[in-house]
Amino acid sequence: MKFDHNKINTLGELKKAGYKSRPIKDELRDNLREKLKMGEEVFHGIWGYEDTVIPELERAILSRHNINLLGLRGQAKTRLARLMINLLDEWLPYVEGSEINDDPFDPISRTAKEIIEENGDSTPIGWINRSDRYYEKLATPDVTVADLIGDVDPIKAANLKLSYADDRVIHYGMIPRANRSIFVINELPDMQARIQVALFNILQERDIQIRGFKLRLPLDIQFVFTANPEDYTNRGNIVTPLKDRIGSQILTHYPKSIEISKKITQQESAIQKSQSDTVSVPSLALDLLEQISFQARASEFIDAKSGVSARMSITAYENLLSTAEHRALVLGLKQTRVRMSDFMGIIPAITGKVELVYEGEQEGAAMVAEKLLSESIRTLFEVYFPKIKKLKHSDERTPYEDVIEYFGGGNEFVLATDINDEQYNAELKKVYPIEKLVMKYQPDTLKEDFPFLMEFVLWALVEYSRLSKSKYETGFEFKDLFNSYLKGAIGGD
């Protein structure tokens, strides 16, 4: 039942309207039931969890559980928790003057009880919006019991001339102030064990202890915790009695397909309209960008326990567009399309997002990033074009023979990065065997994407050791591998 919060200002009016209060877990459960019956989407904008995480989270809410979301970084744990506010009532009444959002029909603080006792049905009622019923705290080693639970305020005790044993001298911490709200503690294992212990009674017995005396305060809170499995070994753990009081532990995961990853990247990237108007991105470039994250999660150089956040793809995409945009601005172009060479601009977005193991440290972060790009090119090349065999019979002609013979005939190809799109397209057309190859195996490719696929083939042939590629200040040079080796050997003499 909905109530007009603008017309209800006293406890008497609230009673007359027929309002009935309910615990927050019941509120979340009831509203979720209604949304599920109506077929409404609760966790909008979360991709890849439709058949895994979200049903488990919904079941936990129906069970009225406190929840722990366990997963590696960048798996939308906090996003899920924040979206739970959509299951709260839009407006909630509370006793005006209460520090802890006291329920007018079931006050728990002395202040609220005294206000109601004094005013009766004339007790002033305030209304709190669902957006203000969400609290979030990052668990860091410096968090104290006073921060979360509260402490005795000596100034208040002196002003009121009360002893420290009187509950009226308490300055409430974040958790009591989140009464009748969702309270999220991120990275729970990072919190000191003695602080975690302070949460025991709140979750189970719903009382708190401050400065040695117990205060019966049956708080009404929906707790959501997030944790990273890495934390259990590297920094700390969730103490067993606290874990036992958390009803449901839900495992999150990374996107399982490139298509889902692309949806997440497109949704989350901070792209200005001026960028999207200036830079066009071929579909293969989007796939290649996401494939880099998949390769990183399987790489021997990267710590799998640390994970590779979805934020890596997001920032890499932003860098990719910025690289192309930079070229357009320098050359005075109104529009441009992403090129393979632009992927060198995403290296800084990768190096800052991955935790390297010892072997990776030896290689260097930038080199590991380039290896990820190389592996991604090889992986996607076989999706678009015939596989390149490692060995072949002497009389066997492969689909790439004409291209290799073109370079074997002494042709060298320089593709500059500081040229406009018209020049870029014209340069690539000079390597006519590649254009024929793309037209044969990818005939449905958009006309504007053909140049990108042609350059992609060049980079792929380098990765399969069929051509050589050397970088210079303003571009890349592609040569026959054998001729390049001979020239290097002669030069070395």
Structure characteristics:
single chain; 493 residues; alpha/beta; Rossmann fold; Arc Repressor Mutant, subunit A; 3 domains; 3-stranded antiparallel sheet; 24 helices; 16 strands; 45% helix; disordered C terminus
Structure characterization notes:
The protein has 493 residues and is of the alpha/beta class. The protein has three domains: 241 residues, 3-Layer(aba) Sandwich (Rossmann fold), CATH 3.40.50.300; 127 residues, Helicase, Ruva Protein, domain 3, CATH 1.10.8; 92 residues, Arc Repressor Mutant, subunit A (Orthogonal Bundle), CATH 1.10.10. Helices cover 45% and strands 14% of the residues. The strands form six sheets. The protein has a five-stranded parallel sheet, with helices on one face. A three-stranded antiparallel sheet has the order 14-16-15. A two-stranded antiparallel sheet has the order 2-3. The N and C termini lie far apart (89 Å). The C terminus is likely disordered.
Write the SSE topology.
Elements: H1 11-16, H2 24-38, H3 53-62, E1 67-70, H4 77-83, E2 91-95, H5 110-119, E3 125-129, E4 134-138, H6 145-148, E5 150-152, H7 154-160, E6 170-172, H8 174-177, E7 181-186, H9 193-197, H10 200-203, E8 208-210, E9 213-215, E10 221-227, H11 231-234, H12 240-244, E11 248-251, H13 258-268, H14 273-278, E12 279-280, H15 283-298, H16 310-331, E13 336-337, H17 347-351, H18 358-363, H19 365-384, H20 401-408, E14 413-416, H21 421-429, H22 432-441, H23 450-463, E15 467-472, E16 475-480, H24 481-492
Parallel strand pairs: 1-10, 1-11, 4-7, 7-10, 12-13
Antiparallel strand pairs: 2-3, 5-6, 8-9, 14-16, 15-16
Helix pairs in contact: 13-15, 13-16, 15-16, 15-19, 19-23, 22-23
